[in-house]
Design goal:
Layout (H helix, E strand, L loop, with lengths): L1 H33 L6 E4 L4 E8 L7 E7 L2 E5 L4 E4 L17
Antiparallel strand pairs: 1-2, 1-5, 2-3, 3-4
Amino acid sequence: MEFFVALLFVVAAFYFILLRPVMNQQRRRRRDLAALDVGDEVLTSGGFYATVRAIRTMDEGPQEIMLEVAPGVELRATPDAIQHVTPRTTEGAGSADGTDPE
């Protein structure tokens, strides 16, 4: 009986320490990719910061995202290449203390 209690404790610890954080991270990533829109700034798995210029859904195969890494330089990527979506900032909003940044 003690063996089963210990085994149950180990399984519960494994779930809460390892599996649950990974599942939450995957859920957050899917949510961020689903909300991806033209104009968003992203970080690719290759370490490039880029701006989303177009999102194309193909009839067959994976979705294709056009990224601009520099003025006039565009890359084609799959959603798997997007590591992180940076939050949008409201342009012209000023800083937190109400002054304009300069």
